[in-house]
Each structure stands twice: as structure tokens, then as C-alpha cells.
């Protein structure tokens, strides 16, 4: 699970080691990546919104 | 390739030549408020950041293009990944952006604080003029472009402030925090004076706010910045910023004049007076749509000369001008015009261009109707 | 509209292309116009899309030249403001919906099956239908110019209530035209997704796909996500205009700002719909002529996905001046600034691909390099526009016009031209004429910069968008822009000449026309590509280098 999160984080930055990428594509399940990706997008939106709301006070 | 390089270098040096050259009509004005200066600084900061990044990126690019030419026998290396470099060029821009976001946030917070204003001005966008109302001061007027159409058509020589001049400028005091409330009577307009760094959409049915605290007296010009129909290019803004004493004198004079106008409602007006006043109201308010000779431009703007519906029914005529026609471009003039102006313009449109009905509508009649 | 198309190979020729000498059971295609009306072949439909978009590019270009000619000098010289507004509006609508988007769809039709080793698109009849909707939609749209009251005159962003209560009577036809174009886009996008997900050659995994396929896959998802939003917003307009609703009419309790939120929720991803496939094309061309593998393929894919996701979060940056709450303003400023990061990654990857390569300057490469430089300049001004307080000064000025034209003309349009030059040998079997292509490139690149660079200055100095006449201090900038625009416009005739000459003849191109670093599957079929390719799926092998 932690591996999936780490890979998705790497994807957010747009950086990943080729080896790690190969491993993800060979062993990981697509569904896990998509779910984690969507959740982390929501988290990202939440974080930006939080910062914005805090800064607006 | 080299030509491209020269062109780019030329472009960049043009941009960066000197601050003085930049200020003279090539760059954003520094402006005359604390906030406009802050925004100018932000603008220049992000600009120079872009220039530096551009020089590095394009530098590497053009170095590669020149150094590694196939025609000069360059042999391609074989690398296609480097995690360290990739992390670096993701993280560094991120840090730069955070560095920009912090001052930008601070400036935005100041812009969003219109509290403790000493004067409130309501700014209403209308196709195609501005209406300024000094709230609680009983002073309100319309501001139309005063550049003659003949200049636009090229029949007269164009003046220095071509398209940026109005019949009645907005007058504001310096060193006082002035709050603006924006709304619109028809479509969305945007009130923009570059020297104040204030640009705010005026939205029908909504009130938005912004504020200004001018540091230097002077005349500042701007334009409508949101496409608002056929004469969008012809609704300039002129602000006359005065010393506080001068402003107070000006305001007192305007209040006196307004009071005098209010007295005029009760007296009987002669036909000639009404026609004269009506012509000037028509010229500044109605003619942009219904055309100077009342010929209109159908289908959007019906002709008034010989308009049978209007001539047959005077009550309908009054109602149309006072309340507008919903679902069309005809706005309500209930608040825009005072009873004298309403009466005059109704009289004028019923008698000009061969409409000769002989009807004279009295301001008192309109005032009574407005109170109902 | 007699379509000019690449010469179609005879049946004998195409059967030679079929691997292992497959027998040919196809009936002879219908002749004449019926052939084009009924075709289900991805290459023919691709050509139709490209020819259609080229015609529309010229129509939209003529509208732009009317605008530029009027702005050549101060004063109202050629057209009245009413017609001027129709021209700016139609220019935008035609260029976005009828030129750039169909051109990318045309390239997708031609190249995606070839690049993934599929015999055709997954849904060929749907493919035919999505194309033939377009001429219908845009004939209808263009016909509004001749209707009483004129065509759309409220800008390509058609903000209500200017586009509802105050709009000309033809607006209902404009809405119908956009609906039809939107249906076409959605169907095309479904087809592309179905093709990419189901029809890849055996052995080709997602991360083996060429970047043009990747970027189009992501673009197709964007299209499916946002075109219905556009359909919704124009339907609300339709109701406001014809059925007495008040979605956007404040007098009836509606909200004009709601229109902008909906429009830009469509509109911002739309911007990326017009640029992501461009990234794919450039990512194919630069390695080919730098003779070096693309740097950071995986990060390109990730960056494209990141841009696509972020594109849904930034629509508010088009609305900084409407008076959003401070928190909203800050949210959209931060998310917009974030988008610069993945975009930067792409530019850095291209530049690093060039670094220590072995670079030559064939016509596709010239356009791709100009794309990198000029798109980046457009990106810089985009970054400046993201700073909300500064945006109060930039918003709705020529600075914005300069910004999005840099992204769309030397961005999207140059990438399309680069793609056309790159794949012409595959389509026609001939290389494009070298000298003419170079002339086309240099005149275009100079023209485009002369047109749009001065607009930055005009905007900063205070010139608003969409005005038919301007104050005297903007005269010099506009004069230069107009000269540049005519130069750019007329040099596109050279492009037509190059394409026509290339179809007719020229230096013969081999299958692998651009050397060993242009090594995706399309380069394994003969040039010109026979009408039917990959009837037996190829076995995909990962590139050796």
C-alpha cells in the first residue's frame, strides 16, 4: 500500500525511476493506482483549499 | 535558427531595455496608489523570474542546437532518464512559485479589505456609459464618452485623448479611502483604471466592491474591459483626483445644483425648455442605440421616429422609459434619470424627427408616477 | 468542397502491404462523392478531418485579417463595430472548434491506429458520423452571419446576459451548431478511447505507447468530461432565450456569474484539449531529429496526467475580476501556479532530449523547435497571469490576447503543422518540398511574432480586448501586429502549396522516412501507407535503443 502511495506521489511530481515504474506496471493492480490517485487528488484539492481559506482569514 | 535567436534576443532586450523606457507606454503603469505600486512590483518580479528561467532554458536549448548539430558530425549520447535532475527541476520551480505566492497573497489580502472607507461611490455600468452615485451625498451623474463621432470616422483630426475623454469625469479626493460598489443595469461591464490597478466586473443583479486611496492629484483614464456590446470600445472612464479641499468644494457645488434641479420638478415647464433639455438627454443616453435621428437599428433597437406604438399610447411610452422592457436591451431609467430628465426626454421623443404630437410631459407628472 | 487527398494506392499495391499475403475480400469502394460520404476507413476520414480543418483555418484566418485590418490604424475605417464583434467572435469559435480541434482529431484518426498497430478505429461507422456532423455544424454557424441581426457578436466566450437577453436572434442557431459540434467531439473521443484501450498490437503495453497516443487518450477523457458541461450551459442559454427561464437573467433571480463558472469549467480543460496532443506530436518529432531517445518518457506521461487533473481545478483564474471571495481567489491562484510545474517538466524534458543529441533541422523539426520556444513564452505570460493581483491589470487586455495566441498559434497550430510535415511522407509517399517548407516556416515564425509580441506591450500599456478602435498611444503596436498578421496569413498559402505538391509528387520516401529514431509502428508500413494496414496485428517489439 505504501508503495502505491509512493508511486502515485512520484507521479504527481512527474518523476519516477524506470526500475520502480517497471515494477509498478508488472506487479501493481491498476485499480489500486486509480483509487489512490483519485483519493490523493481529492487530498490535494483539500490542501490547497485549506491553505487558501487559512490565508483568507 | 540564428535568425530566430536574433529575433528573440531583440525581443528580450526590447523588454528589458530600461525602466524609463518601460514606463513610457510599453509596460504596466506604476500607478498612483500604494496597491498599484505593489502590483507593479509583483508584475516586475514575476517578469524577471520568467526572464531568468527563459535565459537558462533557451540558453541550454540553443547551445544544444548549435553545439550538437548532425551536420557537424555530432554523435548522440544515449541517456533518457536521470531521477536527480528530474526531482531538481520539479522542486526548484515549486519553490520559486511558493516564493511568488506569498507576496501575491499579502497584496490580495489588502485589496480585499475595503473597511474604514470615508466615501462610498456606486458605479453602475450601462450600455454604454458609466453612472456615478456618491452614496449619502445626493450627487449622481452619468459619464459618456465625449469624443465626437466625426473624429472616429476620421473626418476631424483626432485629439490627444481620443476615445479616452468623457463629458463628466468621476471626481475623487486624494488621500482618502474611497470604496467603490459596482453593479450593472444590463450586461457585464468592467470598470478599469490602470493607474489605480482597479479592474472590477460590474454584474447585473450583483454588487461587487473594491477601493482606492489615491496618492497624487491628476486626471486618470481607463476603459471598459469586458465586451458589453456594440459600443464596448466607446465607454471610457476618466477620474479627476483632487486635493481634499477642492473635492469638498466641488461636492458642495454639485449638491447645490442637485437641490436646484429638484426644485425644478414642481414648476411648470415650457415646451421649448423641455425640448432643449430632452435633446441633450437623448444625445447622451438614448442615441447610442436608437441613433441620433431616431431611426434605430432594428431588430435589436426599434426606430423611434414614426414609431406608431409609442406615438399612439403615451402611458405605454412613459412606462417603457421608466421601467424598461424585460427580456430586451431596453433598461429601466427609473433611477438613472431624474423626473425632469425623464419628462424632457419623453417630450423630446414625442416631438422630434417629425413625430410632432405636441404632447408636453411635465416633470411633476413623472415625479408623481414614480412615487406610486 | 472537392476534397484533395493523398493518392490512394490501387488494390494491388495495398495487398502487397498486407503481411503474409492475406487475400483481399473487400468490395470495391463506391466512387465519387459517395465514397467520401460513406467511408469508414480511418485514413480517409483522417484526411477529411484535416482538409476540413484547413479550410476552416483559412475562413477563421480571413475573419482575423478583417479584425487586424480594422485595427491597422485608429478610427473606424473598414467595418462597423457590430460587424467587428461578429468577426472577433466567429474567428475564435471557428479556430477553436472547427480548425484546431478537428485537425488534432484528423491526426488522431490517421496516426493512432498506425501507431498502435490496429487495422482501423474501433468504431468505424461512428467515426464517419462524427466527421460528417462537423460540416453541418459549421455551415450552420457560418450561415448566422447572413441572418437578420447578424451572427454571434458576444465573443467566443459568449458571456451571459450579452449572449442571451441582449443577443441577436441568430443565437439559437449558434447554440444548435455548438451542440452538433459537441456531439461530434464526444463521439470522436469515445472512438479514440475504445481504439487505444482495445486495439493495441499484441505485446504493446500502455507504457509502450507513443506519446501522441498517450496525450490523445488523456485528451479524449477530458473531452468526455467537459463537452457535456458546454452542452449544459448552452442549453441553459437556449432556455433563457426561448422558454422564459432565468438561469442567467438577474432580473428573474438568475446569476450571470454562474454562466462563467460553467463556461470555464468547460473552457479551461478545453485549452488543454487543444495543447496536450501537441505535446504528443512534439515528443515524437524532437527525438527523431535529435537522434536520441526522448528524455523522461514516464515523466511525460505523468506530467500530462497531472496537467489534465489540475486543468479541472483552475477555471476560476479566468474570473479573477468578477469579485470572487478571497479564499476562492487564492485557491485558483495557487492551483494555477501549480500547473506550471508539470508544464515546466515537459519543456525541460524536450530541452534535455536535445542536449547532447545529433540534431538536424528538417521542416518538422523547425516547427517543433519553434513550438518549444514560443509555447514556453506563452507559458511565461500564463504564469504572470496566474498572479491574481497582477491579473487585475492584465485581465481582458491585449496581454491576454498575446498570451493565448502564443499558446495556440505557435503552440497548437505549429505542432499540427509539424505533425503534417512529419507524417506527409507516410501519407503521400513523398517528402515535402524542402525549400518551400523552409520559406513557409521562416515566414510563419516571423509573422507570428510580429503579430503577437507587440500585443504584450499594447496590453500592458492599457489596451482592452475586443475593441474596434483604440486610443492613439496604441497605434504603433497595432500597426506592427497587422503587418505581421497579413504576413502570417498569406504565408499559409505556401503551406497549401507544399501539401498539394507533396500529394502530387516529390522525392520518394522509404517506409522509415525520418531515420531510425522515428521508430514507432507507423514507420514499419510502406510509404505511402496502403489503404488497409495491420490487418494481421504486428508483434510489438520495444525499441532497441
From TrEMBL, chain A:
TM segment ranges: 30-56
Top-rank lineage group of the source organism: Bacteria
Keyword Transmembrane tagged: yes
Protein name: DUF2970 domain-containing protein
Keyword set, alphabetical order: Membrane, Transmembrane, Transmembrane helix
Organism: Billgrantia endophytica
Cross-referenced InterPro entries: DUF2970 (IPR021344)
TrEMBL record, chain B:
Top-level taxon of the source organism: Bacteria
InterPro entries: CcO_II, CcO_II-like_C, Copper_CuA, Cupredoxin, Cyt_c-like_dom, Cyt_c-like_dom_sf, Cyt_c_oxidase_su2, Cyt_c_oxidase_su2_TM_dom
GO cellular component, one term: plasma membrane
Subcellular location: Cell membrane; Membrane
Residue ranges of coiled coil: none
E.C. numbers: 7.1.1.9
Membrane topology category: Multi-pass membrane protein
Gene3D superfamilies recorded: 1.10.287.90, Cupredoxins - blue copper proteins, Cytochrome c-like domain
Keyword Iron part of the UniProt annotation: yes
Keyword list, A-Z: Copper, Electron transport, Heme, Iron, Membrane, Metal-binding, Respiratory chain, Signal, Translocase, Transmembrane, Transmembrane helix, Transport
Transmembrane portions of the chain: 39-66, 87-106
GO BP annotation list: ATP synthesis coupled electron transport
Cytochrome oxidase subunit II transmembrane region profile domain mapped to chain residues: 20-115
PROSITE patterns: COX2 (PS00078), COX2_CUA (PS50857), COX2_TM (PS50999), CYTC (PS51007)
Physiological role: Subunits I and II form the functional core of the enzyme complex. Electrons originating in cytochrome c are transferred via heme a and Cu(A) to the binuclear center formed by heme a3 and Cu(B).
Protein family membership: Belongs to the cytochrome c oxidase subunit 2 family.
Protein name according to UniProt: Cytochrome c oxidase subunit 2
Protein source organism: Billgrantia endophytica
TrEMBL record, chain C:
An annotated Gene Ontology molecular function: metal ion binding
Homology family: Belongs to the heme-copper respiratory oxidase family.
Stored InterPro entries: Cyt_c_oxase-like_su1_dom, Cyt_c_oxase-like_su1_sf, Cyt_C_Oxase_1, Cyt_c_Oxase_su1_BS, Cyt_c_oxase_su1_dom, Cyt_c_oxidase_su1_bac
NCBIfam families: CtaD_CoxA
TM spans (from-to): 48-69, 89-110, 131-151, 171-199, 211-239, 271-289, 301-320, 326-345, 366-388, 400-424, 436-457, 477-503
Location in or out of the cell: Cell membrane; Membrane
Reactions this protein catalyses: 4 Fe(II)-[cytochrome c] + O2 + 8 H(+)(in) = 4 Fe(III)-[cytochrome c] + 2 H2O + 4 H(+)(out)
Keywords: Cell membrane, Copper, Electron transport, Heme, Iron, Membrane, Metal-binding, Respiratory chain, Translocase, Transmembrane, Transmembrane helix, Transport
Topology term for the membrane: Multi-pass membrane protein
Keyword Heme: yes
Name of the protein in its database record: Cytochrome c oxidase subunit 1
Pfam family, one: COX1
Annotated metabolic or biological route of this protein: Energy metabolism; oxidative phosphorylation
Function noted in UniProt: Cytochrome c oxidase is the component of the respiratory chain that catalyzes the reduction of oxygen to water. Subunits 1-3 form the functional core of the enzyme complex. CO I is the catalytic subunit of the enzyme. Electrons originating in cytochrome c are transferred via the copper A center of subunit 2 and heme A of subunit 1 to the bimetallic center formed by heme A3 and copper B.
A single GO BP: respiratory electron transport chain
Region of interest (Disordered), ranges: 1-27
GO CC terms: plasma membrane; respiratory chain complex IV
EC number: 7.1.1.9
Gene of this entry: ctaD
Organism the protein comes from: Billgrantia endophytica
Residue ranges constituting the Cytochrome oxidase subunit I profile domain according to the UniProt record: 36-541
